[in-house]
Amino acid sequence: MTTSWATATLVAATITNGLMAGLFTAYSYAVMPGLGQTDDRTFVEAVQQTNAAILNGWFGICFGGALLFAAAAAVLHLGRPGLPWIVAGLVLYAAVLVITFRVHVPLNDRLAAAGAPVTLADPAAVRAAFEGTWVRWNVVRAVCSTAAFGSLVGALVVRAST
User: Fold this and answer.
1) Distance between CA 30 and CA 81 in Å, rounded?
2) How many CB atoms lie within 10 A of CB 47?
3) Is it the case that residue 108 has pLDDT exceeding 70?
4) pTM of full prediction above 0.90
């Protein structure tokens, strides 16, 4: 039974980490470059609306599940093949959370607090205080998240070969 739980948690960790890696990476190569082509008010409004919309149960399951499932998989794989890969994935995803809570959440909160884009006296200043830092750190977050996913895939490969 423990082997089944160990495998199930590793699969769940891999799936949720993969979903988060895909989300952060898509923002890096599609969403933010696309929004970067818009005018300042449109940019601020689109990001504010997206930040509000993403806070939902499905996002929460993936965002939190990626850490919780990886931690559970690590515990259930103590002394088993693949543990170093799982720990690497866990540490890399923990870095994603640190970046998110120290960089992205405060930036998103400040952007929301700026108010409705139609009422902004200087939407260019609001955008400038947000965009560059958010985009740069999202690339770091996407790389860490993708590396976490790759590490967990590595653990699955090791498990399958033993």
Assistant:
1) 37
2) 24
3) yes
4) yes
Residues 6+ apart with CB under 8 A from 49: none
- Residues 59 and 108: their CA atoms lie apart, in Å, by 16
Distance CA 139, CA 31 (A): 12
Query: 160 is written with which tokens?
Result: 């399958």
Sign of CA dihedral 67, 68, 72, 73: negative
pLDDT in tens, 16-74: 999 999 999 999 999 999 999 999 999 999 999 999 999 999 999 999 999 999 999 99
> What is the C-alpha separation between 15 and 133, in angstroms, rounded?
28
Q: Which amino acid is present at 113? A: A
Mean pLDDT of the chain: 96
**Which amino acid, residue 138?**
N
Q: Helix H segments across the chain?
A: 2-26, 32-36, 40-53, 57-76, 83-99, 105-113, 123-128, 131-161
